[in-house]
Amino acid sequence: MARKRDIETKLDRYFHEVSTIILSRQNAATGLIPASVAVTTHGDYRDAWVRDNVYSIYAVWGLALAYRRIDDDQGRSYELQHATIKLMRGLLFAMMCQAEKVEQFKHTQSVLHCLHAKYNTATGGTVVGDRDWGHLQIDATSIFLLALAEMTASGLTIIYTLDEVRFIQNLVFYIERAYRTPDYGIWERGNKINHGMPELNSSSIGMAVAALQA
After folding, report:
1. Tens of pLDDT along 10-27?
2. Could you give the C-alpha distances from 94 to 24, 57, 122, 195, in angstroms and in order?
3. Which stretch of DSSP H or E encloses residue 40?
4. Which residues touch 127 (CB under 8 Å, ≥6 apart)?
5. Within its chain, how far is the Cα of 179 from the centroid?
6. Which DSSP state fits 119?
7. Where in the chain are the domains?
8. Are 39 and 45 in contact (CB under 8 A)?
9. Is-contact 184 134, C-beta < 8 A?
10. Is residue 145 classed as helix, strand or coil in its secondary structure?
11. pTM score, two decimals?
12. How many H helices and E strands in the chain?
């Protein structure tokens, strides 16, 4: 019993941290989380980056799984799981609004036909133009698919309709040529001499492989 109380105490501390640091910033309408509250000369960091959102919600989902393992979780596992579902569906909605780009990208692999890497936190809409940001980040789309597969396997229901199933299948086609598709990578800057040109990134290829194997 003492060990169980120790575990519950630790989980409750983590719950407080997750609630304070992550969930308090989750948008009530879209479920998305801003990268920051800062607006600087480098950009508006109140936007929701796909990659950052998935990494953030992994902490929430992981804690939900931990709470599942104890008998009395005071409903916290349910709360954390549904916060996870809300964010993942928020990202899904934002990307599905650009479904025509996914279809085009399968044929062109053009940086102008790729999914955007960040969205408006409050609406899920686009925030910068196709030419105004290094949007082609295959690792970001891949980690979304990887998280989706892992969370679904854990019992979460994130995909509801056949249209969503078809879109997810298209995302698989979207990332399947990562091994030969230059992108802007995790640093969003392109090649290492910083000329803004996409190049093959091992981080993108590795994440695509992980997603395709999930």
Report:
1. 999 999 999 999 999 999
2. 21, 16, 11, 29
3. strand 39-40
4. 44, 47, 116, 118, 119, 120
5. 21
6. E
7. 1-213
8. yes
9. yes
10. helix
11. 0.91
12. 7, 4
